[in-house]
Amino acid sequence: MQKVGVRLNKHDIIKEVFNTVGEIAKTADFIAAGLNNYDVLSLCKQGYIERVRNGYYKLPNQDEPKEEYLISKLLPQGIVCVESALFYYGYNDFAPREWTIAIPRSFSRMVKKAQEELPVKAYYIQNKLHQLGETIGNFDGVSLPVYDRERTICDCFKYRTKLDNEIFNKAINTYVVDSKKNLANLSKYAKEMRVYKKMMSVMEVLLNG
Predict the structure, then answer these.
(1) Which of 44, 100, 101, 108 has the smallest set of CB atoms within 10 Å of its CB?
(2) Range of the domain at 108
(3) Are 84 and 123 in contact (CB under 8 A)?
(4) pLDDT tens digits, one per residue of 68-107
(5) pTM (2 decimals)?
(6) Are residues 52 and 138 in the same domain?
(7) Exposed, middle or buried: residue 183 (CB in 10 Å: 0-12, 13-18, 19+)?
């Protein structure tokens, strides 16, 4: 980040950090650039940076960061799933009150910290299934990992007892008429997630109806 032979002052380091990492920087980003914890606290008190969350800062002339951007920073291993993914694909008409995020089971501590700052509901996923069906979506201008249509429908069957009947039925019926559906992937994912029989008992009727 810093040019060889050029010594930047603390204010210049701050600018360099934000130019590199974007609109939110972590304490660790400043330390990696040559500042220490005392420098960060001092610069915050002086108004050169503003604290937006514990350990996260922005420049004082910037708006409050979007929830989408905070999720990308606070839960970098997270993947938008189930209710939030259904809304994203238009399979549910109502925006969920919480972000539903798939997280590897080993990252539960990170989720608890994020839940202090954001409305997040975590679905803890086995490591081997965590990236199954992962793609990238545009959420109000912010790129976030999200499960594709087929993984999202498989999740509806996997978490059937946690979903409202109206949400479940709307999702399945909307998927069936979706021109972008991929039935080959749906079958593949369902087998890997062990929901194939459960899913096909419902989907065969709808697809052949």
Answers:
(1) 108
(2) 68-207
(3) no
(4) 988 998 899 999 999 999 999 999 998 899 999 999 988 8
(5) 0.80
(6) no
(7) exposed
